[in-house]
Amino acid sequence: MTEHMQQFVRLPQQPPQKRGVVERREDFGEIYREFDQAGAAAQASRCSQCGIPFCQIHCPLGNNIPDWLKLSAEGRLEEAYEISAATNTFPEICGRICPQDRLCEGNCVIEKGFESVTIGAVERFITDTAFEQGWVRPIRPRRERAQSIGIIGAGPAGLAAAEALRRQGYQVHVYDRHDRMGGLLIYGIPGFKLEKPIVERRRLWLEDGGIQFHLNQDIGGALSFEALRGRHDAVLIATGVYKAREIAAPGSGLHGIVPALDYLIASNRKGLGDDVPDYDSGLLNAAGKRVVVIGGGDTAMDCVRTAIRQDAASVTCLYRRDRANMPGSMREVTNAIDEGIEFTWLAAPEAFLGDDHVTGVRAVRMHLGLADASGRQIVEPVAGSSFTVEADLVIKALGFDPEDLPGAFNEPGLALTRWGTLKVGSKDFMTALPGVFAAGDIVRGASLVVWAIKDGRDAAAAMHQYLEQSASFATAAE
Ligand SMILES: Cc1cc2nc3c(=O)[nH]c(=O)nc-3n(C[C@H](O)[C@H](O)[C@H](O)COP(=O)(O)OP(=O)(O)OC[C@H]3O[C@@H](n4cnc5c(N)ncnc54)[C@H](O)[C@@H]3O)c2cc1C
Ligand code: SF4
């Protein structure tokens, strides 16, 4: 062991500085500043280089974290970048938005007693530096292959697969119904977690590598799924999950009650300089309003923190469980509290008040009961505990289910699970249709970017195997 490592006994955890609350509420810039090289090296040197790296085991991508921490501590950043990029298509994105407290950092062995290594921040620093230094080289396949692949969905799953397949030399075409690539990275996740030039930088890199994007292409709409299949030797469906869960309560149809993703897309588009009539009209803009957000996951946290930046008069988050049971990243909950969001835990909406436009939410207190079969405590209303929260804008952030893909694609052969996600082979990622694969949220259900990347990479490997086998059968038959 070099003298560079195991510094946790001497050095305290020091994450990159956060911008002050007053300053960061004024804009949509990321709230964490970047490490400088000395800071990154010092924090990386805290790694204990333990024999069984639990951080790596709990990283969905199996990143070789101890290795790139050691190289960073030694100032060997280009090598650190090579190792980091070998297992992760977008390390700088994961470093920013993975819920590290539940994944790598939450399982760091020095966490008990010394606070974990700031793994995500070092990961981000390594790749941001690599971009600055020109170490992120274009994708240049060793040989071109004639076979072509169609990928539906330019989110992290589709993009990770596109990169891996292009490296193998396939002709890769990515289709998306939006006018920009990135999926939820561009239109869902706000800039204060992930600034958009970071995504744009990757677009340029992917295009430079020869991946062709076909934007504004709604598959199942203007271009049929059947026609798309006819164009390509294999197809990957990576369309994510977008059917917003509804609240069955009286008054839920009132004006001023909006779905979370509509609200976030409007805000992100505005930040990207687009014309957004529903934002300008005030429908999807929290300025001056009393805002109530219903839900407790990452989407809800993004909505409350967007509303506060839009200069809402007040922002309240209603969540039916308690803080400890919130499903999203604890780090983001803490950031939201710091930024002035009021949380009303253990409360659920009973009814929305107002004649035409919403004026308030009548909520009821909840308590946590016994655990159900899944092990999660059930929530039950407390009789006679109703109360009202005044509101001009209510944002529903209760999560997402898959859309009806066999219906949308007019392809009944696409088999579904009982949750409505696409059914694929556990190892080969193939749907019930030969040559049609699927990855990301549309298979897993609403999940995380890091899992989408993992699935995209694994699906690409399975598609490569399938295409090689198909090619060798064709040669044998000649
Ligand atoms: C508001 C919000 C915040 C989040 N925050 C985090 C976070 O902080 N950290 C984290 O790890 N995860 C976060 N997530 C989850 C994460 O964004 C997703 O798990 C991830 O993006 C899934 O990747 P994907 O590629 O499967 O799908 P998506 O990113 O949803 O991409 C799917 C793409 O397919 C396109 N598409 C869909 N249907 C069609 C069609 N018929 N034709 C053409 N194109 C189509 C869509 O336009 C989209 O671009 C968040 C999710 C939301 C909603
Ligand atoms: S990809 Fe996510 S879980 Fe894995 S090391 Fe990076 S931040 Fe941690």
From TrEMBL:
Domain Dihydroprymidine dehydrogenase, first and last residues per copy: 25-134
GO molecular function ontology, one term from the record: metal ion binding
UniProt superkingdom: Bacteria
Keywords assigned: 4Fe-4S, Iron, Iron-sulfur, Metal-binding, Oxidoreductase
Start and end residues of each stretch annotated as Disordered: 1-20
FAD/NAD(P)-binding domain segment(s): 149-456
PANTHER family referenced in this protein's UniProt entry, alphabetically: GLUTAMATE SYNTHASE [NADPH] SMALL CHAIN, GLUTAMATE SYNTHASE [NADPH] SMALL CHAIN-RELATED
Protein known as: Glutamate synthase (NADPH/NADH) small chain
Taxonomy of the source species: Bacteria, Pseudomonadati, Pseudomonadota, Alphaproteobacteria, Acetobacterales
